[in-house]
Structure formats: C-alpha cells, structure tokens
Amino acid sequence: METLYFSPMLLGLNLMLASAIACTGLWYFSRPYPGPGFWMAGAWTLILGILLFMGFMASGSPLLNVLGNATQLAGEAILLLGVFRFLGLPPPYWTVPASAGAMALVNSWYWYSPINTELMVAIYAVIGGVLPLQACHALLVERREPALRSARLFVGITLLGYALVTLLRAAVGVHDWLQQVEHADVTRSVSYLLPYNFGIPLWVIALVGLALMTMRRILLDSQRHAQEAHASAHRFERLMGVANAGMLVVEDGRILDANPMLEQLFARRRDQLLGQPLAKLLDDDEAPLLHQLLQRADGRPHDLQARRGDGDGFPAEVAVAALDDSQQRLVEIRDVSHRKALELQLLHLATTDPLTGALNRRAFEERAEQELQRARRQNSPLCLALLDLDHFKAINDRHGHQVGDEVLRRFSQLCQQQARRTDLFARHGGEEFIFLLPDTNAESARHLLERLRIALQGLEIDAPGGPVRVSVSIGLASVGAHDDLHHLQGVADAALYRAKQLGRNRVELAL
To answer: In what order do the strands lie in the sheet with 246-251?
Structure first.
C-alpha cells in the first residue's frame, strides 16, 4: 500500500490524465483553431502508453513493454505536432512513426538479447529529449503574430527545460550503463525518477502555456473581429447616411433602422418609421409582391407604388437583400418618378406622330392587331375608317406648309376630341388618317364619323390670305369573320376612293 501511495508512475499518470482532460476541453472550446486537437490526441495517446507500461510492470509481458514505450513516445510526438499546426508550419509527421518505431525496435531487441536497463532508459530519453527541441526551435524563431511573442517564449523555454531534463536523464543513464550499474528496482534509479520530479511538472507547465497561447490568439482574434465589425458598422452607417436612396433594415416585416434619405423620401420622421410595417410605405395592392420580395431577398429591383406620409403616391424601385444569416433584410427604395416620366416621354415619342400627336402607323398597327384578335375571340363588331383631307395639296400650295401643318394639327385635335376612350386614331401618312372603332357596328360608326365630318366643316384655321376651311372624305369598312388588318385597310381604302369620286366631304361604307 505504501508503494502504491508513493508510486511516481501513478502520480505521473494522474497528472497526465488531468492534462488530457484539460486538452480535451481546450480543443472543444477552441474549435476550429488548429493545434489543440493534436494536443488532445497526443495527451490521450501518452496516457494509453503509460497504462500499457503499467500493465507490463504488473504482468511482465514483453509485448506490453514494447507497446507501452512506443506508444508513449508516439503520444509525445503527436502532441508536439500540434505546436507546428498552431504556428501554421508544416508538421513533421515523420517523427511519430520514427520515434515509436525506433523505441519498439530497441525494446524488441532487449527481449531477444537483454541489455542494461539503464541503457534502455538512456535511449528512450534521447528520443524523448530530441522531440521537444524541434517544437522549441519553431516557437523561438517564429516572427509572425508579434502579440503572441511572449506566450511563444514562455512555452518554448519550458519545452527547452523539459528537453534538457530528459537529455540529462539520458546522460545519467549512459553513465550508469558505463559503470555497469543496473537497478533491480527502477524506482530507485535516478534516471527513472528524474522525469517524474522535474520532467512531468515542466510538461504540464508547457501544456498550460499552450492553453494560454491558444486563449491569447482567440482573444486577439475576437478583438480584431470586434474592431472589424465596428468598422463595418461605421462604414454601413456612413453608406446609409450618404446614399441617395432610402435604406432601411427590416425584420419580420417591420422597420428596425432607416437612413435620413428615407425620412425625406416619405416625409416622415425617423421615430415615426421605426417599428412600423414596411407594407405601410406602399400601396395596399403591393402587399403580395412585397411579401415575395422579402422572402426571396435576391437584391433585384422591382417597380412598386409607394405612398408618402401625406398620402401622395409615387413610383418606387424596391430591392431587398439578405443582411446576414438572420431574418433581417436590407431594403433600398428609390423614387423613380423622373425615370418613369422619361419612360412615358420616350414611349410617347416612339408611338406618336410628332406633328399631330396622333398615334404613328407602327404603333397603330400593333394595337389594331390586338383589337382585331379580341374581336374575333369575342365575336364582337369592329370598324375601320380611312380619312383623307380634301384638297390638302391646294392648301399647301396656296398658304404654305406652315398653314398646312396647322391644318393637320387642328384636324388631329378634333378627331381625338371626338374619339372614344377605346378608339384608336393614327396618322396614316401625309394628310391621311385612320380610325379603329372596337365594339362598334357599321351604323354606329357611320354616325360617329358623320358627327366628326360636320364638326370639321365649322373649323376655321387662320391664315395670311384669310381663314381656311377644310373637309374630309371617309371610307368605312366593317370587319368580317376572316379579315386581317391589311385586307380591312384595303376595303376601307376602296370606300374612301369612292367617297372622293362621289364629290368628297362624305362618309362611304364599303360594299
């Protein structure tokens, strides 16, 4: 019992077991930092080797002796590999099989041809002393991460002390071997007791230093990440402040933060915006699309109708992006009223005749085709009329092109005033115009065109040579079951020609 109580091996085992548990905790809480995983694996491998060696001492099994010593050195080598991984250096993996294999070879020879036990201890100590010298050198010459320099020096010096104690153990063992000293009870051997009194404490101190070095790196990284996060937040705030679009952070559909531009855009104070549903900034009809945008958060802009605090609506471009892994969204809202006005202006220029303001021929034909298809599907009536100003060339020749242009403008204005909302009116070319009258039979179309013709007779255009009066000849065609637009225009043109032949200033229905 006294032997067990004062057993240095049991004391060493308990110290190494505590170190292994501590290394396991360090690995768990420091993931994914490199290094602690090797320290944990090395410590448990070392304990396994000690247990195997204790089994040899209890049973005298040569196999346990070979495995125990080899496994202990393998554990030390694995643990020291973690130092290289922690420093970001290529680990010398070869040291694990080399140290374990060398010791296993020597131990196997011992059982084949016994040699002095002190020489065995010396060989073990030489291998165990050289291993930490590699890690010690790496720690002391490393120049990166200046903030870790003091921790590296602490661990490096401690490992150097451990290596020197181990090599001193080897020297004592060699001395005893040369003196032919051999201890029947190894616990009374100086070379055996030296590591338990000095080596293991230094080993534990080195492990504590490695833990401190790891925590120091974690702390430095945390500080750096905090500084980067602060700088990123500052940049984000500056971007939010100088952006020429309304920017807001949304979570669960409610506004968490907003930039000054959003206040200007919606004519609301920031305190009135925070906590409010984002949907309140948009028309009620936009709620389904807004919900989809918040779900997708793909950053693509979409046109929605927004509403200011005073109730005025305006066209807005809305883009939603995911802010982070949470449910928060970054929403950008731009007032695109000017862009929409330009688009309408460009559309107007592309589809209207610049002189008369009527549709141009291309725009008319595109829309007329749609109306013609609709009329066929719904089996509804539809009429087309061609209108040609009478004696327009004579007006141009007598009064000049300025008066002629004014005649065209005034006639176009009159036609657009007389037209219904569903009618299409366009300049067909020169002094010729065209009407498309959806949902209108021939008789109703004739009455509408007659009113237009009579109204034109009362129109006077001032000119230097006196007032100018104009009249119009009109050819009217009603769509048939299989008529296309080209054929319908041909039929109306024939009716217009007949109106000209019959004296002008009249409406003629196609035969």
So the answer is: 254-258, 246-251, 329-335, 313-322, 302-307
